[in-house]
Write a structure and sequence with these properties.
homodimer; 117 residues; mainly alpha; Arc Repressor Mutant, subunit A; 2 strands; DNA-binding
Chain lengths: 117, 117
DNA sequence: CCCGATCGTTACGGGTCCGTATCATTATCG
DNA sequence: CGATAATGATACGGACCCGTAACGATCGGG
């Protein structure tokens, strides 16, 4: 069941959501941070630094730094993997789940407003 | 004619597009830069620094800096308004129009892939 | 055991962006 | 004219992120 949307509608949707994200005053997430956050919350665990780096096509320090920032914002946490202590497992948080849910609602609401463009 | 989309679908769409934007290697635009770019290309001219600042709810230096960057990327240009030389008019470019069109296609393609989530 | 491989982190130099304050230029109006 | 207002740009100190390279900790095979 594909989602029906035309490029002109997609662009209006993209603009409206970004306008809201800018206007709400909270710190904007970069594209990389957004991709990481949504991957952790939408894909099945476990999530590791290396795995995220591979999925995004970026280097590991990029992931480490993004996790520092997202962790500081309370949107996710890190935990040592006790089975293989070299690994770090990225875990979800309540605040992160709420933020992701808000984003989903935001996109959905703006989609509703967009008529035949 | 509202666009039908559920939050879970919206989130998967948001993730997929951001993954592509990260992976394509080109410099990521910030949320502010994206909002400015799409406003210039979707809303009727003329566009001024002050007008954009008001629409985004940010200060004028934020717009000036974003225009510096977007201009350096060739996505838009500035021109003095000859009728009131205090104003600067932001204009579209061919490269910018192509980039916006690509974004619209990107969102549309991923929307097609998203089934009943 | 020990050596190599793997994991995530840190260090470094450079670039970009932030918010606030200030600036030069131009227009407006008494 | 001259004073005031408005516009966009610039200066500044601080924060964040980048890519590359190196690092310490941990695992695993000979």
């Amino acid at each position: 069941m594909p989602l029906e949307i035309r490029p002109s509608q997609a662009l209006r949707l993209w603009r409206q959501v970004h306008l809201d994200l800018v206007r709400d005053g909270e710190p904007d997430l970069s594209a990389r941070q957004t991709a990481i956050l949504l991957t952790v919350y939408l894909e099945l665990p476990p999530h590791t630094v290396r795995g995220l780096a591979k999925q995004l096509g970026v280097t590991k320090p990029v992931i480490t730094r993004a996790l520092d920032t997202l962790g500081k914002l309370g949107l996710l946490t890190r935990k040592r993997d006790e089975e293989d202590r070299r690994n770090v497992v990225i875990q979800r948080t309540v605040a992160g789940a709420l933020a992701v849910e808000r984003l989903g609602d935001l996109v959905t609401e703006h989609a509703k407003e967009i008529g035949a463009g």
